[in-house]
Amino acid sequence: MKFGKSACIINVGGARYTFPQDVMKDFPLRRLSRLHSCASEREVLEVCDDYDRERNEFFFDRHAEAFGFLMLYAQHGTLRFAPHMCELSFYNEMLYWGLESSHLEFCCQRRLDERMSDTYTRFSEEDRHAEAELPRARRDSKWLERMRRTFEEPTSSVAAQILASVSVIFVIVSMVMLCASTLPDWKTAESNVVEEHRIIEAVCIGWFTAECIVRFIVSRDKCEFVRRPLNIIDLLAITPYYISVTMTVLTGENSQLQRAGVTLRVLRMMRIFWVIKLARHFLGLQTLGLTLRRCYREMVMLLVFICVAMAIFGALAQLLEHGLDLKSGNEEYASIPAACWWVIISMTTVGYGDMYPITVPGRVLGGLCVVSGIVLLALPITFIYHSFVQCYHELKFRSARCTRSLSAEFLN
Fold first, then answer.
1. Do residues 391 and 294 make contact, with C-beta atoms less than 8 angstroms apart?
2. Alpha-carbon distance 132 to 25, whole Å?
3. Which among 226, 231, 224 has a CA at the least distance from the CA of 209?
């Protein structure tokens, strides 16, 4: 750098730093070290945003607080994320100044990896579909695309919101009818209202069937539509009704005889899965599903903790309560599987009271089992809780953005 002054001023977002030229040569931030090799003002402007020759001041329109943390790294050799700043934004600042993720401390590297993994999970599939949508949308007719958005995206338009509200009403009516049909009073009075019940049930099934067929027709990728979990649940909820009707037509049996069959009763109860359809319209259920998908490792870890504790405490409980004295031992702990039931209800602090230890060593073991259960269950639940909060804020932000777009469309 040959501009006649021994010191240069670095101005980053209004924060000014003064450096000797010899320090700039081997500065840890590669973008600043590149200034030392610049031989002309044109080369300098390729590195920074602006340059003042009189004061020998270089201007960078970047985040001042993030640069301050990068300067701490240059002084002390330790780099951590700036508080109250997005990890990805800070990482972009690092890349701009010539640093990599390997320069971060291990704890911050882990945070960055988790953040990038979550971002990839959330946006990668959506981005792929968005890229594929452009040429397809040009080929598809406008009404087909509008129909797809109306049925698949409840917040895309006013018509989509009305359709979603009607669908929710049908789900509620169907659930109320299913629950009421199991009441004793309903069964005794069913001979008088059987026709009304059949009509309501047929109307609900017809609505769900028509909705599912239309969504299948207007979907872009039919194979992807069939593989979606919510669509599989729709199929499992609709199919039992048609199986029941088919058996009525083929065998000539009435509905009372059909419901006496165990298989048909199980199939009929599968209609309770319609409640999961509400996940399309309610933020809380969407948050729960997204959290479970992101935290499957923590869920597996929780199950491993429980299984290991059940094996250890179950074997010890069977030994202390029954194995040491086969004649007068506690018969409720006659086997390890029976003792594992006591372990699981003790670790979860449920305590039904159907079985409990009677010996002193068994009661001491029970206390250890309860304390261990509290500790083991609390460890992974902390990660799940933080992931739930993060997923809730992300979906809430997305919902608010869609609502603003819908309001603008309605006003226009």
1. yes
2. 47
3. 231
Helix runs in 229-358, H state only: 229-251, 255-259, 262-269, 283-294, 296-318, 336-347
Note the Cα 243 to chain centre separation in Å.
35
Model confidence pLDDT, tens digit, residues 392-410: 877 777 666 555 555 444 4
Q: In this structure, are residues 348 and 326 in contact, taking their beta carbons and an 8 Å threshold?
A: no
Element (H, E) at 218: helix 184-218
State pLDDT tens for residues 340-396. 999 999 998 888 888 888 888 889 999 999 999 988 888 888 888 888 888 887 777
DSSP 323: I
Contact 329, 335 (CB under 8 A): no
Contact 287, 325 (CB under 8 A): no
Mean pLDDT of the chain: 77
Buried b (16+ CB within 10 A) or exposed e, 13-47: eeeeeebebeebeebbbebbbbbbebeeeeebeeb
Task: Give me the pLDDT at residue 316, please.
Answer: 92
Q: Cα–Cα distance between 385 and 209 in angstroms, integer?
A: 37
Tokens 């909060």 — which residue? 389
Terminal C-alpha separation, the chain: 56
- For 134, the 3-state DSSP assignment is helix
Give SS3 for 59.
Answer: strand
Q: Which two tokens stand for residue 260?
A: 């006496």
Nearest CA to 321 out of 299, 340, 295 is that of 340
Distance from C-alpha of 372 to C-alpha of 346, rounded to nearest angstrom: 10
Nearest to 358 by CA among 320, 392, 393: 320
Task: Name which residue leads in pLDDT, 125 or 339.
Answer: 339
C-beta contacts of 251-259 below 8 A and 24+ residues apart: 255/194, 255/198
Tokens representing 35 are: 């200034």
